[in-house]
Protein 1
Amino acid sequence: MSASPTPARSQPPLPPPDAPPGEPPRTNALRVLWEQTGMLLVFAVLVAGCVIFVPNFSNLRNINGLLLSVTTYGIIACTMLFCLASGDFDLSVGSVVAMSGVVAAVVTNQTHSVLLGILAGTAAGAIVGLCNGIVIAVLGINALITTLATMQIVRGLSYLTSDGRAVGVANDAFYTLGLSSMRDLSWMKWLGESGEFGRFLVGITLPIWIMLACFAVFGILLKKTIFGRNTLAIGGNKEAAFLAGIPVRLTKIAIFTLQGMVAGLAGVILASRLTSGQPTSGQGYELKVISACVLGGVSLTGGVGTMTGVVMGVLIMGIAENAMNLLNIQAFWQYVASGAILLAAVLLDRLKQRRVV
Amino acid sequence: MESAYLQFDSVSKSFPGVRALDRVSFSVREGRVHALIGENGAGKSTLLKVLSGLYRPDGGVVLMGGMAQSFRSTAAAIRAGVAVIYQELQLVPELSVAENLYLGNLPARMGWVNTIDMIAAAARQLEDLGERINPKAKVGSLSIGQRQMVEIAKALARDAKVIAFDEPTSSLSTRETDRLFSVIGKLKRQGSVILYVSHRMEEIFEVCDSATVLRDGRLAHTYESVEGVSRGELVEKMVGRSIEDIFHYQPRTPGAEVLKVDGLTGPGLTQPASFIARSGEIVGFFGLVGAGRTELMKVIYGARRARSGQVFIDGGAISPSSPRQAIRAGIVLCPEDRKKEGIIPIRSVMENLNISGRRHFSRLGFFINESRERANAAKHVERLAIRTPSLDQLVMNLSGGNQQKVILARWLSERIRVILFDEPTRGIDVGAKSEIYSIIYELANAGIAVVVVSSELPEVLGVCDRICVMREGAIVADIPRGQASQQKILGLALPAGAQTKTQEPL
């Protein structure tokens, strides 16, 4: 067998290499430990290092800012997890962020209803996702190509709707989505006066709460529902999942629609924070989000992924960026760093796969 | 006796659980065409893969011209003068004939391909074979027969001394087959050593000088000359093993008709297929690889779209357009290729086992009920004696037999009426095999209609109440157990010969 020039996967199917009956191979305990806690370890070391060496890092105000800075891609990473876990990609999310922000701004301005604006922005994202899903699942086009195309189409559409300029919103209620916190609630006043940590809690803005809610909801969706398990099964072996009676197409369409919807929501929130819908926003977010997922141990070939991992990945990226800012490292170097982080993440994924095969 | 150029000396190759080749020895002289025959799984393909350097033998040696060869790769085998021409031709359709001929060995000066020289050389090579193929034509535009000629020319361009053909006529017309035979005759006169693997008896008598019969990975017999040997004798040598009874068959009385397949056509089926299976009955499907058995099962199961025809369950017409619908109608399938189509390798035993049935014990049809899933998995692991250290073990770490049991267990939480097994024991060791058989009987005794597709004749004869034989995409016979014999069934399954092939439309 060792003489075979082809990788193990494409070897002739004649006699499958079976383990001798009765004694399934033992898994290495250390390996399992690393698999389960490796990322946690990296995370802990990173946090400890930042607390010790980066001035002001552990300041609660800085933590709040750090969390706020990761909200957009933290929210999108929740559904990107599903895309990757099912063995696909979505590159259109960055453009969807821009378009849904613009749509929300335009609709709010025209209807004078913030609620309609938010719904329209989110729905626009969902529609893009639905289109992606149908093209990929029903027409059978590669997800990479499909979403590469929609990424450009959607970016173009957001320029067209906004005439290439930021669309300002002259409605204060629109900003609440991005800026409000418990500080605005009079009945939570006691918490803000109860000490430093209380002040931190009331200072956490709505986008952060929404991100945390997304982590919880999609975490449960992946782990505790049939939909989530089906997603992982499809990523693990699409043909076997199909033959086991899983509605593969429907599940894929649902995943992409959810992905579009959530990216849309993230876009609306971003627009609210920026007080305008900007057609240039969200550029490169798709890669940032995918890097965060991969960093969190989500396999690019599908079938493997946890929400805990994704949360970790998102935070690692946020902390790295935040620490570099605090250390006054030039912005240009930050590109180099995030590229290096992505490469490291992919290498990690590769190592994991070698273990699997 | 003059010395043989190609010698297999006690060649063995094992895979876990399977002894694919067991001390096989035979030799072929120069200028001879030697047939290699045997049932599916007899070891022919493994032997060819050893010859081509794809597998390394565990024991024994291949000699060429008296020199022991140990190929570390297919490239090494090619350099030593071996060419294996597989059923699936190894050509690049987008490239020209000439480019394909010299692929990996392009005549070049300083990295620049000398196209004119190459085309001229290709034209000479093809002319030597008596072929009129434009060397500039794209291989994709050629007929299968012409492509095969290109493949042969490619072998000669690489100075191949040993040329092995694997089922070369399976997709050729009569005229193309005749051309192939005349080229083989020419190669023979030039002193090549030719190995010829085929199921078609007539061809063997037509082109081969000598023959080796393999059975269960062992040498059954070598004929120094096939002259005067009867077809019946060869078939007997192919199947004539003693069947140890690992089957423990017990007669049952079938009940009412459960599954009725009426005039089903679809991809891979050349004629409308019809058969029935009764409650408690085990119906076998035998045929050679590519006879359309798997395709028929997939169409019944809704995994491939039927072009026409209908499937009935308990008299009610269903036409599943997806496995999901088939499962809900009571039809389930244990697929042929466990690794590719059965298991989700990187998921746990529990996950693989509950993948379909979990909807029956979910909350609100949406949320997983972990404790009931665990209980269900534990129950089936115990009932089917699935050997796994824990329910959370990844299924890919289990042996083939245990993986098959996990797939089977998946269906036991469904309300099944019909279960289709496609090669249920392929690559499984003997002990696990008889366990699988007893589960099959248990299912039949519970009133389920069971269909068993198998390439192993003894299995079909040992397990089934009735046997359908498929040949070239059609059901050609439906024989009750009492009237079935190995010779009869194999005789029906083997293609009648090249003359039954359709004429070339030219």
Protein 2
Amino acid sequence: MTVHGGVGQSIKRKEDARFVRGKGNYVDDVKLPGMLYLDIVRSPYAHARIRYINIEKALKVPGVLAVIRGKDLEAANLAWMPTLMSDKQMVLPVERVMYQSQEVAAVVADSRYAAADGVAAVEVDYEPLPVVVDPMKALEPGAPILRPDRKEQTNRIWHWEVGDREGTDKALKESDVVVKENLYIPRIHVSSIETCGCVASFDAMGKLTVWMTTQAPHAIRTVFALVAGLPEQKIRIISPDIGGGFGGKVPVYPGYVLAVVAALKTGHPVKWIEDRSENIQADSFARDYHISAEIGATRDGKLTALRVKTIADHGYTDAAANPSKFPAGLFHIVTGSYPFEKAHVEVDGVYTNKPPGGIAYRCSFRVTEAAFTIERIVDSLARKLGMDPAEFRMKNFIPPEAFPFKSALGWEYDSGNYQGALRKAMDIVDYDALRKEQAEKRKRGELMGIGISSFTEIVGAGPSHTFDILGLKMFDSCEIRIHPTGKAIARFGTKSQGQGHETTYAQILAEELGISSEDIAIEEGDTDTAPYGLGTYASRSTPTAGAAASIAARKIRDKAQKIAAHLLEVSPDDLEWKDHKFQVKGVPDKAKTMAEIAFAAYTNHPPGMEAGLEAVDYYDPPNLTYPFGSYICVVDIDKETGEVKIRRFVAVDDCGTIINPMIVEGQIHGGLTMGLAPALLEEIHYDENGNILGGSFMDYLLPTAVETPKWETAKTTTPSPHHPIGAKGVGESATVGAPAAIVNAVVDALAHLGVTHIDIPITPWKVWKILHEKRAA
Amino acid sequence: MVLAEMPSAGDEETGPFVNVHVTVNGAPRSATVETRTLLVHFLRENLSLTGTHIGCDTTNCGACTILLDGKAVKSCTILAVQADGREVRTVEGLETDGKLHPIQEGFIEEHGLQCGFCTPGMMMCSVALLQKNPHPTEEQIRRAISGNLCRCTGYVNIVKAIQHAANQMAGPSGGGRP
């Protein structure tokens, strides 16, 4: 017997009812009496000394109430704030600006328009300083030291390495075939359609409430308490409806802090909402990895070893949001779907005159960088060996019976069936027929390519023995209350930004409790009411808070069993949970539903038992989860224009147990599109003076419905053995897996011309240039 | 932080101001606004119709799409005064007599939305398309919504949502609905 809205059902989303009516409540929709508006003066220079800031004219602008400068904050010890990576970041500069569009001063006014007028009236005199935009040059001797405030007088932020250096060197030396590729994964920007912003307000008792575009409200509250010295019970962070996050809404940006300072000083609520151009020029940057990878194999195509060296451009501060023990995130998942015996990875973080980078772009802590590297270079190696890339992968995959599998770099993969996923993708796309078609087309001079990516993800951070952010362990939570009438409310430490938690969490609880998902309200994002949790990013909601939901529900079932026994006048041991109710074993007619039990919990509970039916669980996952998939992309290249057209893209994903197939498919569609974006379109580029080229939607090209192909999806199901319902998380798999499939397809189309790699984004211009250089057009 | 001196009464020099009268979702609405006020701010702040969203500052994203005299326009690139005396329809005007518009049903049924931020603009653009072309091909739908950016869905289900609405509006129950 199924429960309505249980696990595995494609029920429609609860949250849609308000969104399709225009009744969502996003931060910019919050309007408080007497609310003021904050706007920000930004630097035109990437590196400059501030000679002076003249605010006289700005203060005379009608409607302007105040101007905040770095020196005003310095007086309150708030000019700098810590980043989540234990580096520090300016709220407002006192002496120097470090990147173009950096916050320089803030204007508070009684309307948006007056605030903008005030910004235009602030006069700042700058003395330009030498700019370092290239991280390689930043590491050269004699390069300007960008962070003289640090003890170490170098632009190298940190060096991090893992694996067996000597063993890897030796194994590569002894390999019959070694392939090396230099891969640049450029800086990109998540560009959720809602930008960042907040409304900060103090009440008469001095309690601060901040409505804020944040994916991690509880952690933010603690950070505010630690930085500003406010008592934590007097801080309430409310993350209302969020218009997309993708990682860009995890960090604390200066605008949030400025709004709080302005609210404190003016005594009025203050709203700060950044423009798109500010958003795309100043915050939420991802990637910027300069990767050099070497891979070895035996003559007959058996992988031997992998060595990866990376320069990570973090901009002027390390303001990424990685677990604190992993400055390069989970990049050491780079051994991917293959059982390397030896591997070594080293990463150097570097300062440059760019905005803070290294934040996620819909992926779990550098996992896209890792998956792209391994899936790209495995393709190069297969080509060098003259093997078909599918055959090469099949030959080398970790076999299904090897799970749980310990990787060369220390991860324990929970479960997988990589052969199964690739076989399915090949069947759907009819791989052999495509190879035949390609051979015929090549004879005619037509350019067609087939690319494969068989990625392994690592999500659901994470076990508290290894995972924390600023010391806060990365558990997550669920608190359930069942009301007397058998309806329920559950609150979580996570925060949906479009993933549909109001629906999927209710489905987990419906399955566990035998209550229709319609009768379970889900709340997140209010730190005054929700249990503490680290928030939603890195595909961690289902692996952590989703697991907490199951465990909390099972705690409720334990108590419910005793109440049911009391009602049925049997021993609890005589009962079994079957068909979503407690039945006397072998006597299905003698049963109590959760609704009946809930009513009794408040009206007729057993003597000596506490009344009520509630539970809370803080779930500390025993391991991460390892979703995987195989993608096959088919491209045609227009020789006249260099344009890459994706003809087909088949995505076979395995995220373990699926809670809502409709929502999972939607997540994969979106992820694929954010995989296509950096592969073909998106890049945040800087000129030598540190000017951002692509600082608005005019130049930074998000995929539209025209560039986006009709994605074809399919699934295999390999449950996680350690998650209570076997789920793994799915929000980012496709973003992680898709770029390599697309690039591999383009390289495959051009391989006969000697092309082994093209850096992303693969624009028509890059392809056209190659075709002309190779005289193939 | 340096506070401005409070202006004395009558000292304010903002404006100039203008009265704007617009028929919004069938009802006459008016407000006195600065002449430079954008239509999207007029709708969101003066009329508290916050379903129309702002996602960019370069007229690229389409989150602010509304119908002006029946035509889909980006309300961030039109002044409120330009809408004076005209008819505006926003997402709040799609549902009538407690019944969702077929496009709203389509977005729910086909999972055409995730975070919901682009959704109102996307739906208004779709309504304009279906008024002009009740039976669009997939290619025509993709072209029509190419001025509206969605970061969550990958568009596949948005296309299906619009097809769903087209079918509903062509069928016996939804026939002829605007």
Protein 3
Amino acid sequence: MAQQTDIVPRKTIVQRWIESTIARYFYMIVLSFLLFGLLLLFIGKDPIQSYRDIFTSTLGSPYGFSEVIVSMTPVLLTGLAVALPSKIMLINVGAEGQLYIGAAFATWGALTFQALPAWQLIPIMMLLGLLGGALWAFIPAYLKSIGLVNETITSLLLNSVAPKIIGFLVFGFWHSAMDTNKTARFVQAARLPTFFGTRVNLGLIFGLVLLIAFWLFMKYSRWGLEMRAIGGNAQAARRNGIPLKTYILVVFCTGGAIAGLAGMVQASGYYGLMLTNFSVGWGFMGFLISWLVGGDPIGIIVMSFIVSLIYSGGNLLQITSGVPYSIINILLALTLFVVLARPSFAKGRK
Amino acid sequence: MALLPLLGILSSAIFSGTSLLYTALGEVINERSGIVNLGLEGVLLVSASSGFAVTVRTGNPYLGVFVACIVGGLMNLLFGFLVITRKANQLASGLAVMFFGFGLSALIGNPYVGKSINALPRFELPILSNFPALYASLFKFDVLIYLVIPMAFIVWWLLFRTRWGLGVRAVGENADIAFASGRDPRLIRYQALFIGGLLTGIGAAHISIAYAMNWTEYMTGGRGFIAIALVIFSRWHPIRAIAGALLFSTAVAVQLVLQNSGINISPFLLDCVPYILTLIVLIIWGGNRKQSAPASLGRVYEGSD
């Protein structure tokens, strides 16, 4: 018997990916759409028509599709910001706060170096965004590395502080002559370039490239191996001479830096200015997505796409059905519930 | 500063702090059983909207409070199904519940936007009738405010002086050992979540039926997260949560007064103070095992089946 199993041809990566990822998520999404359909029926809407609207508005036109990609961009980055520390069993709930601080740093750059050309200004803003996120993540990372306070609690607390700091800066110093809650529009050199006349910006490329780099890094680099060792058994890794504290500091701050980059992307690419409370839960959504797929890069892309599809479709649901926009959150939450609860027929590898 | 503004601060701090304290007390019970509910924001919103809807429909605010309370319990049971029965990650499930609450509360509350209600009646304590009317009027509270401090003591008694509370704390420290000593960790966690949810529901009712007296989407404005910070600040103890709630709500009240008196401190920075204090408290008590979180907070109980 044992010999026979050796002969069975191993499935290729693509085959396994199709079976595990696509099939699993397909079942789950059908289930959640059924549940939400019942709810729509209950409040007197036609579910078939609503779903047709959602899909034709998003997948049916190039513009709709590009809007899905636009709302996917920040959660790709924040998802990675959570996935990276999760590989060494660190829980980064603070992507929301890191995103805010990263955006604040980038905004400072955009307002200070207005005279520079784009090829200098954009990299400066990116570096500032990375730096801001990393600094904000340094607080929980340092407290964790000296064994004082759990990083989950501290990063969660700092989420509540960061938007208030932005409020202070924008309200007190940066606001434009017209508004008190936002800055003036950034100069053109401080805007991330967009593609094909849509709102899709360079941030998408950052997200995809970083996710691929993350996958390669975990699989093929020495540091990836050591991180997997820490994730498997931190004490054993430490006794084998892996510098645990350094890894905690560096990996957590890198996660924060990526979330900070997401903030820079949103300020520079999406809004083109900075406003108070500008994030609509991108950090939290990134956390959810990353945990749902177990920090798997392909899973992050698939799940971000699904979540963004639902959100973008919800925009149209309001126009055609006359229900409040936020009820799209119910469909989103049902999808998340179904994935979290992992019904037995869809149970694959973790 | 004169006495009147100070009393004014205290009065408005009590008004805004009551819902925080109820919510935090609920979360203390949840977390003592080892479950952290990040979805408090969603639970609050759904409870607040359904309580408000019932009050508009029936005209009876007490019925609204009752319904909000039950709905809070049910929302927590839904969360419990995910994290206890389906063993999902607690933080992720909590955030999913939060998004669910955003949507469901918008749906429930949508027909009632802008409607007015009979708010929870306010009355003053008989002792205060000797004071000048101006002062006494600052301390006319509704019944939920009068009950909140006794409620903190009831929760303390429940957790630290009853058999059930012992069970809750045992499960929160180590579910396997609690199981070995003859308790059912899953059942206890469900019970703790339900009772915690009832308290959260009362907090939500106070926001929509007694304090704001209206319904708007996202009206809780982050109170769920403040309550979680408050639980940490009070180091998982219901009595200390009273002081925490006063601190958090006083920071809000003080900034209103400062703005009026023209003192130039950014309200945003003042808002940060309670969080920074919580962080400092955490750092000070960090190494001390006796003061730290329930040991199996956030862990999944795998069970023996």
